[in-house]
């Protein structure tokens, strides 16, 4: 059962372990991938790394036990088993299956069209090569532009699997990175760090989220410049078996591309990810309900719609789209759990599935909105 309480405890324990190990958010990043993106591979990666840690360092056995317990409390053993089965299935998916996964995503009509066009283009290029003709010199690297929570990471994972299915990538694995994974603490070490990360990503997708943060200090940031010099070189050197996808806010990404003369030319595909509409936010909530076998009543859904409508009208600059919906869903499920625990000691299957109007929070306007 998803719970906001267990979610936070899981993140807190992973942060503690990172501090003890002096690792820069290594375990916390995996945990965030689990709670924010519901990533099956991240669930198994966390279990695997905890097992590896216990084997080599017995002193951390207590931390391992606590995190594993919280993971099972947060997800439930059934979901972890299902994650494993889904991961096994996804590795064997055909291109048609992957295109169906893409098309099932809520909204993103233009994004889906652009990705499907890329697949069509690359199929034809492969046919040209087989016919003894020259292929296009376009790189596979991409830039995903848009606000947080607009499914950029999800689409990037699907694209990687599609390219693997087409034979454009030898492995199709997915590595997510941020500034801390690329920038070293000391002068001259950043290039080495970037090389190591690129070597890990070869044959798959290197997804750099908030890529603009690499150059956040503009010209004074010699570390950022060192990183971009090495990254720009890698974009060209390994273009035949590596896809680098950079992502972030549209305006900040414009500055990112201006920071290095040869950088933008290495990217041939730019995809804009729009914010979700009211209908799409409600659809994402309904999708989450169906995924976890919850059934909201009509009056509950009306209140959900009202809540998201108020949130959109608030025009909060920190609006997080799909991430907001998933946090909201966690709050609703927790409210349902509290209600049921007060109502009955042995809830029926129908009661366990049903979400009613009182489980949905009432939207509270910010103080500045009330005073307008």
Automatic annotation (TrEMBL):
Gene Ontology MF terms in the entry: ATP binding; ATP hydrolysis activity
All residue ranges annotated as the AAA+ ATPase domain in the record: 138-297
One Pfam family here: AAA
UniProt cross-references to InterPro entries, sorted A to Z: AAA+_ATPase, AAA_lid_6, ATPase_AAA_core, CbxX/CfxQ, CbxX/CfxQ_RuBisCO_ESX, P-loop_NTPase
Keyword tags: ATP-binding, Nucleotide-binding
Domain of life: Bacteria
Gene3D superfamilies: 1.10.8.60, P-loop containing nucleotide triphosphate hydrolases
Family: Belongs to the CbxX/CfxQ family.
PANTHER family: AAA-TYPE ATPASE FAMILY PROTEIN / ANKYRIN REPEAT FAMILY PROTEIN (PTHR43392), AAA-TYPE ATPASE FAMILY PROTEIN _ ANKYRIN REPEAT FAMILY PROTEIN (PTHR43392:SF2)
This protein's name: AAA family ATPase
């Amino acid at each position: 059962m998803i719970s906001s309480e267990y979610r936070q405890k899981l993140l807190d324990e992973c942060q503690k372990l990172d501090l003890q190990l002096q690792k820069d958010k290594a375990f916390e990043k995996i945990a965030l991938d689990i709670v924010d993106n519901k990533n099956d591979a991240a669930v198994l990666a966390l279990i695997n790394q905890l097992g590896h840690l216990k084997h080599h360092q017995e002193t951390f056995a207590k931390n391992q036990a606590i995190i594993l317990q919280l993971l099972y409390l947060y997800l439930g053993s059934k979901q972890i088993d299902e994650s494993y089965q889904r991961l096994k299935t996804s590795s064997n998916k055909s291109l048609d299956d992957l295109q169906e996964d893409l098309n099932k995503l809520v909204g993103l009509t233009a994004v889906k069209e652009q990705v499907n066009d890329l697949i069509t283009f690359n199929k034809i290029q492969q046919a040209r090569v087989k016919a003894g003709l020259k292929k296009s010199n376009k790189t596979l690297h991409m830039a995903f532009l848009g606000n947080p929570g607009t499914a950029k990471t999800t689409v990037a994972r699907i694209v990687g699997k599609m390219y693997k299915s087409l034979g454009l990538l030898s492995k199709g694995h997915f590595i997510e990175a941020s500034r801390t994974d690329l920038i070293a603490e000391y002068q001259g070490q950043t290039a080495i760090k970037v090389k190591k990360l690129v070597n890990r990503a070869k044959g798959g997708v290197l997804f750099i989220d908030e890529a603009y943060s690499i150059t956040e200090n503009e010209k004074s940031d010699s570390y950022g410049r060192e990183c971009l010099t090495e990254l720009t070189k890698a974009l060209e050197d390994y273009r035949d078996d590596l896809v680098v996808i950079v992502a972030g806010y549209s305006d900040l990404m414009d500055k990112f591309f201006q920071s290095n003369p040869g950088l933008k030319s290495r990217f041939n595909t730019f995809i804009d990810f729009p914010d979700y509409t009211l209908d799409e936010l409600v659809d994402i909530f309904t999708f989450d309900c169906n995924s976890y076998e919850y059934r909201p009543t009509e009056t509950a859904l009306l209140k959900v719609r009202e809540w998201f409508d108020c949130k959109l009208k608030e025009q909060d600059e920190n609006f997080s789209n799909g991430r907001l919906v998933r946090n909201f869903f966690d709050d609703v499920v927790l409210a349902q759990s509290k209600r049921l625990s007060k109502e009955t000691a042995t809830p029926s299957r129908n009661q366990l599935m049903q979400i009613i109007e009182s489980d949905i929070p009432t939207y509270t306007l910010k103080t500045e909105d009330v005073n307008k």
